[in-house]
Design goal:
By secondary structure, this protein is mainly alpha-helical. It is built from 14 helices and five strands. Helix 2 packs antiparallel against helix 5, helix 6 runs antiparallel to helix 8 and helix 6 packs across helix 11. The chain is globular and about 75 Å long.
Length: 335
């Protein structure tokens, strides 16, 4: 077959334009960012026509992007899965050889992978929350995931919250260690703290309390903030929500792994963790922390809010690459 010449930057713009009606603004932004790295690499390699792409060249790009971005396996997988979707679109445009998308390689994550590297990126989390805001506004999953992302708190802390811990007038929530009534938190008394809330999440919590929250108490007579009709929501349920709603097929109706959605076993709610793109609560916490650091929020502020020491924060939570840190320092001094 004869291929149609197509420049990398033009291909990116045509791809986004073609999918504009089916992708959310956040998804478009994510795709532009990830595919933009490939366009940049093509420029460095003097590849002016995507007809020149081969499986070998795409593998060279993968290794370049891994090193250049200092990517963890999970981040590398996310980026290469997006490239596969883009290359599949290029095939439909006769811009690359047929079946080239099958040669786009990405890491296979296993339970033995270092989970400390796994995080959800800001744009993906915004897509998740955007979907919930549109289709399940002020539901328990919506409130739970928004709270975990916004406050950076652990699942145990969210599980321990009572209605009385929320102060809507002064816009904060208080995390307390109450082991005698079934809600111990990590770090015990050292984990107790006040967490400031934004206008947005306060409005969401208010709507949850007024319109959606079941009027129930737990076995100790306390009124949990996050509750089902049976009482305080289980920590396992909160974890399940994270896996369920971070599957791309749920919030974007597309699969970056090339699966037929209605045939994929991970679409079953009980099997959501099998989706390579779904993430745990800890990945949401890590993503929120990394996002805040990327927005130049000081280490001390993030440390206090997330209840983690600055040394542990830097070693295990800060997923910015050294280059990203350099660019932030440059921007700071230029300003």
């Amino acid at each position: 077959m004869s291929l149609e010449p197509l420049e990398p930057q033009e291909a990116l713009e045509l791809y986004l334009l073609d999918r504009e009606s089916e992708l959310s603004k956040a998804t478009q932004y994510s795709h532009r960012s990830r595919i933009g790295h490939l366009v940049r690499w093509c420029g460095e390699q003097e590849i002016n026509n995507l007809n020149e792409l081969t499986g070998r060249r795409l593998q060279e790009y993968r290794l370049w992007r891994r090193e250049e971005g200092n990517l963890a396996p999970a981040s590398e997988k996310t980026q290469m899965d997006s490239i596969r979707v883009f290359v599949r679109w290029l095939e439909s445009m006769d811009a690359v050889v047929p079946d080239l998308s099958t040669k786009v390689l990405s890491p296979s994550l296993s339970p033995d992978d270092d989970v400390r590297d796994v995080l959800i990126e800001r744009d993906e989390m915004f897509e998740v929350l955007g979907y919930l805001s549109k289709y399940q506004y002020a539901s328990l999953p919506h409130v739970s995931l928004f709270l975990l992302w916004h406050t950076m708190m652990r699942v145990g802390a969210a599980h321990a919250l009572d209605v009385s811990d929320y102060n809507p007038e002064e816009q904060y929530i208080e995390v307390k260690h109450r082991p005698e009534t079934g809600t111990a938190i990590k770090n015990k008394e050292r984990g107790e703290r006040f967490v400031a809330l934004s206008d947005h999440i306060c409005s969401l919590l208010d709507d949850w309390l007024v319109n959606k929250r079941p009027e129930v108490t737990d076995e100790y007579g306390r009124s949990p903030l996050l509750t089902t009709s049976q009482g305080r929501v289980a920590k396992s349920t909160l974890r399940d929500y994270c896996y369920q709603y971070t599957r791309p097929c749920v919030y974007s109706n597309e699969c970056p792994h090339g699966k037929v959605i209605n045939e994929c076993p991970a679409t079953d709610r009980d099997q959501a963790a099998r989706c390579p793109s779904s993430v745990s609560p800890h990945a949401i916490r890590r993503g929120s922390i990394t996002h805040s650091l990327s927005e130049d929020v000081p280490y001390r502020v993030v440390s206090d809010r997330a209840n983690v020491s600055q040394s542990v924060l830097e070693k295990h939570y800060d997923q910015r690459s050294e280059r990203e840190k350099m660019e932030q320092r440059r921007k700071y001094f230029e300003e």
